[in-house]
Amino acid sequence: MANKKEAYLYISAMLRAREPRMLSRDKAERMLDAVSFEESAKLLTDCGYEDMSQMSAKEIEQALAKRRDAALSELAGLVPNAAIVDIFRVKYDYHNAKAVLKAEAMNSDGSELLSGSGRVSPAALQAAYREDRCRDLPGRLGAAMEEAKSLLARSGNPQLADFVLDRAYFEELGDLAKQLESPYLTGYVAVLADSTNLRSAVRILRMGKDVLSMRDAFVSGGNVSVDRIIAASTGEGLAPLFAGTVLADAAALGSAAAEGGTMTAFELACDNAVMAYVSGAKLAAYGEEPVIAYMAAVESEITTVRMILTGRLAGIAPGVIRERLREMYA
């Protein structure tokens, strides 16, 4: 393990040197306090972003996607094992798979919804789907798309197809974590799975549906098993189940949201719990932890930038945007 970690010495030092330029809470507050959208956007140039002060919402989205793609491509060329970057790329493969399936269900093209950040280009994924070559796709993606396609044809219900793809996505994350033999990465995947399952349980309860009958909505790989979540949802409640974990606050807020309370604070707490886990990488001088944390931080930062800029552009009050901001790594 020591030798494996030493292979990350250079890239760890490089990424640590970049952290001071990342968007911090203080910088985000300055963007919210800026007198105009234009001034808010210009502040981001200090963080290495291109000037987006004259862009439309669509152009902002394209610029942020370009920045994310560049970060993923750069790291893929520097890390000892590119599978560590696939942990973040695979999400976009499954996003694209869902978009392709939904486009077929709605008899539309859907190309504008596809992301170029995955392992497979949007064009290649669409072609594999149309030509029944899903088996050529990497990992569990192909088999999952074939199963989802068949289920959609039988049921006409895109949500059921989404459940198939969600489960395959987390199974593939687990595969990658095992391949990389990283306890930190395994923990990261587990927190993502727990957060996803907690959200699913709260939404199901909020809709007044039976959790057991919606078992397919849950994914594997979390620290808390699906059986325990289902049992807690119909018994003692979710809060005790996650007590003492990074999701403790989110679970408490989720119990209130399940009874009709606000979802905003709950969703925010779920995202903050994941970032709390990611921030633990600051204790590691070098290794795979700084790389994983950096990419998670970049994605979180881009979400925050999108929220602030599109909000300011749309004329949303800074106070309203502020209430929805996630915790940040920097």
Number of helices: 15
Structural class by secondary-structure content: mainly alpha
Number of strands: 0
Largest pleated sheet: none
What order do the helices and strands follow? Answer: HHHHHHHHHHHHHHH
Low-confidence stretches: none
Radius of gyration: 20 Å
Q: How would you describe this structure to a colleague?
A:
The protein has 330 residues and is mostly helical. The protein has a domain at 1-54 and 286-330. Helices cover 64% and strands 0% of the residues. Helix 6 (83-105) packs parallel to helix 8, helix 9 (158-180) runs antiparallel to helix 10 and helix 10 packs parallel to helix 11. The chain is globular and about 50 Å long. The mean pLDDT is 92.
Task: Describe the structure in brief.
The protein has 330 residues and is mainly alpha-helical. It has helices at 2-6, 9-18, 25-33, 37-43, 57-76, 83-105, 122-130, 141-155, 158-180, 183-206, 226-233, 248-258, 264-278, 288-313, 318-323.
